[in-house]
Amino acid sequence: MIHVSKMARVAVAALAMIGLVSCGSTEANMVDGSLPRAKSSQALDVAFDNYLSAVQAAGQDLHSIMIVKDGKVLKEQWMSEGDAATPHILNSVSKTFTATAVGFAIAEGKLSLSDKVVDIFPDKLPAEVSDNLKKVEVRHLLTMSAGHDTEPSRRSLPEDADWVEAFLAHPFVHEPGTFFWYNSMGTYMLSAIVQKVTGEKVVDYLKPRLFDPLCIEGATWQESPQGINTGGWGLYLKTEDLAKMGQLILQGGVWNGKQLISKEWIDEATAKHIDCRPAGMRPEQITFKPEDSDWLQGYCYQMWRCRHGAVRADGANGQYIIVMPEQNAVIAMTANIQDMQSEINLVWEHLLPALQ
Prior knowledge:
Blueprint: H1 6-17, H2 42-57, E1 62-69, E2 72-78, E3 88-89, H3 94-107, H4 117-120, H5 131-135, H6 138-142, H7 163-169, H8 184-198, H9 202-211, E4 220-221, E5 235-237, H10 239-250, E6 254-255, E7 258-259, H11 263-269, E8 304-305, E9 311-315, E10 319-324, E11 329-335, H12 340-355
Antiparallel strand pairs: 1-2, 1-11, 3-5, 4-5, 6-7, 8-9, 9-10, 10-11
């Protein structure tokens, strides 16, 4: 928990009295916006100790974990490079925040799921526009099904290349909506779209709508050469910020008694829209079964369905927001772990039973 001076506490408390402080959950600490804490059950105490021992035995480089149940933090631990007050690289967890910005833009009438990408960027199109490209809609970017057979690579582009132009020039082999291919540049396109229709970078657009109400401070986001937040990666937040985001999703978009984003959007954003598979893996390469994999449960809007009725945001090397409606719980994690299936397996094995 962040410590503040006595004078600051008095000042913030006074503002809260007149309704000028609204961050935090309904029962959050109104001084620093942190989530409320509560004592965990003996069963969870034992399970958590067993979980940490299993993490150590597996040689997993876990940086942090926070467990929230019924809106209260029951367990939190930082280790290795993790630090409660230091923003952590999120990698593709960034995608969920970009999708949320899309949801806000749709709610404000600036955008729709059926808007065509060619209509949004008429000045960025290749000389020949394929029939498949003409059909690409915002919804296809959200579901990683724009039609590419391989992901456009930003790393192979010249330093000053226009990333939107590069994305649109990459061959659209498949009918949009029919073929899942994990595509971080597609999320960059969503960021570029939000910036175009709102006039603000995603990180700035989210500040009054999401970050400020949740008391998420100091968010930073990498940018392309065109000054557009990278969207699919590059966001840095603290572990508790991730837990807050998960709690907002769990609560159907409600925070501190206010509907920040509609429940309809949350329901749509966390529903399965297309069959999926691990990033970079083709359908014919799948040799494992859905019951053994959290990457074969279906893709949502920049989130993944999980086993056990859960949904998650995840980022390379072990970054997670796991939302567990059946347990009314959220687990936020940061790490440097290559095998993310083994990482989440330990959650299911040790923590899930204690959260029932």
